[in-house]
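Page 37, continued from 36.
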């Protein structure tokens, strides 16, 4: 099926062959931020004890802990009567775990001690009903419940690769394709290990704000995580846009200050597209690629092209070049 044909399908149809959990969890919209004009980041408080166990033909409530792997997405139901939209989790599994030192709360919105949450980055999509609902006025949404179900197979750790043999991880993210990758990188950075594979991250984004490249989605978080991880390389590629985009943001967000500009040493910033030579360089020397695993997520054309280049590269194999396709 072509990309255009798949794009005409709903989220459930496009992901029919993907694994899904049985449980549907209730969450509460707790916080909304807007890092740039096109994306809204929503934090969902996890209300433990509000889980529906979907075992056809019956639905029943059960207290089941929400669990997921970095890279997975959520079926998001604005109500159980509506069809869900699909949105990638950008937080880490650890951030969804309850704080055992605090009592459980039924309402996750007004208690600052309630730290269990999920985070989603929602791209503005007026023609996508679930996304359009999540782009309503924040005042209409804070405190409102949603229902979510975990799914997806684009995950860390890779399911078909021996973890002990991995010595290099290459992440290639384009635009909102950074969403599953930021969850993976943050997870790796927050879980110290004596054997840390080298991370080479290639991030390409539109050069929508020439004077403020730090407004690329999750760039600050990515830099921070890689600085903690230490054994890493970050290359940022800004591609030109054909028309000017306004820099004025709504949702009461203030523009970035001078202190928020990208530090000269972080990252390697280039005003061009990612080249095939950049991809091959990131894979490392040909004779050492047996331990390299690749994750690619971005626009359809970019993903298909880059995956083909890296799978055909000397020393690589198909099962070690993974990609996410939401179209």
């Amino acid at each position: 099926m072509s990309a255009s044909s798949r794009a005409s399908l709903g989220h459930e149809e496009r992901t029919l062959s993907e694994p899904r959990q049985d449980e549907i969890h209730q969450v509460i919209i707790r916080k909304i931020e807007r890092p740039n004009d096109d994306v809204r980041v929503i934090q969902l408080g996890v209300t433990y004890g509000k889980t529906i166990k979907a075992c056809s033909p019956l639905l029943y409530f059960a207290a089941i802990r929400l669990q997921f792997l970095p890279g997975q997405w959520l079926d998001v139901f604005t109500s159980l009567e509506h069809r869900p939209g699909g949105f990638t989790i950008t937080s880490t599994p650890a951030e969804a775990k309850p704080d055992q030192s605090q009592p459980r709360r039924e309402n996750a919105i007004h208690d600052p001690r309630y730290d269990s949450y999920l985070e989603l980055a929602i791209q503005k999509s007026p023609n996508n009903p679930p996304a359009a609902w999540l782009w309503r006025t924040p005042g209409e949404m804070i405190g409102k419940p949603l229902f979510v179900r975990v799914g997806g197979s684009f995950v860390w750790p890779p399911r078909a690769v021996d973890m002990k043999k991995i010595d290099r991880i290459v992440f290639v993210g384009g635009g909102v394709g950074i969403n599953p990758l930021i969850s993976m990188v943050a997870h790796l950075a927050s879980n110290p290990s004596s054997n840390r594979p080298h991370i080479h991250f290639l991030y390409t984004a539109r050069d929508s704000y020439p004077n403020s490249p730090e407004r690329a989605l999750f760039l600050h978080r990515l830099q921070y995580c890689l600085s903690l991880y230490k054994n890493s390389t970050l290359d940022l590629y800004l591609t030109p846009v054909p028309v000017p985009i306004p820099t004025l943001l709504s949702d009461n967000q203030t523009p970035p200050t001078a202190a928020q500009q990208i530090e000269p040493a972080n990252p390697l910033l280039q005003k061009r597209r990612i080249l095939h030579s950049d991809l091959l360089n990131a894979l490392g020397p040909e004779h050492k690629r047996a331990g390299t695993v690749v994750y690619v997520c971005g626009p359809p054309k970019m993903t298909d092209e880059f995956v083909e280049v890296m799978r055909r590269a000397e020393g690589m194999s198909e099962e070690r070049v993974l990609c996410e396709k939401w179209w």
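The radius of gyration is 20 Å. Flag for discussion at group meeting. The first helix runs from residue 3 to 7.
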